[in-house]
Amino acid sequence: MTTKDYFLADEPALLALAETLANVVKAGQSKAKQVLTIYLIGELGAGKTTFSRGFIQALGHQGKVKSPTYTLVESYQLDAWQVHHFDLYRLADPEELEFMGIRDYLDSNTIILAEWPQRGAGVLPEPDIEISIDYAETARKLVLGALTTRGRELLDKL
Ligand code: ADP
Ligand code: MG
């Protein structure tokens, strides 16, 4: 698996990496025919939602990015993309995603960002990129791993 490691001293550094990844995704937009899926792994407070906020705003969303903790999903219609930001912490059973109609979320030009993706195992699409975030006091250690060809192409450009 292709991986990239980052040591990010503070929140602005983490937001900057999220923005860089969003810019790489934007640059590869012609390949956007299939869904791009990004998993975010890490404990509560690690920075999964913060990373998602940086990513979604860099893709062109101007307003707030709310944590989907209670709603399970927040969706954004951007010019070129639809982004579905999931937080499955409260999901009791992956089947709930079927009842939510997850298949309708899997259109072209779609990006899935998923916090606590383990809880949607088997129903959530497999990831192109998996991002693990670990605490290092107020800094964070991130490992980005590519699990598909498309994921590898994106990470190679970081
Ligand atoms: P999660 O979604 O993983 O539960 P959040 O992104 O909601 O976490 O929260 C991360 C918290 O950690 C925020 O309050 C943020 O300000 C804080 N924080 C402190 N240092 C960092 C850092 N280096 N990178 C990201 N967040 C940080
Ligand atoms: Mg969160």
From TrEMBL:
Its main location: cytoplasm. It holds the Pfam family TsaE. GO terms for biological process: tRNA threonylcarbamoyladenosine modification. Keywords: ATP-binding, Cytoplasm, Magnesium, Metal-binding, Nucleotide-binding, tRNA processing. InterPro entries: P-loop_NTPase, T6A_TsaE. GO terms for molecular function: ATP binding; metal ion binding. GO terms for cellular component: cytoplasm. The keyword rRNA processing does not apply. It comes from the Bacteria. The keyword Protein biosynthesis does not apply. It is found in: Cytoplasm. Belongs to the TsaE family. This is tRNA threonylcarbamoyladenosine biosynthesis protein TsaE. It comes from Pseudidiomarina piscicola. The gene is tsaE.
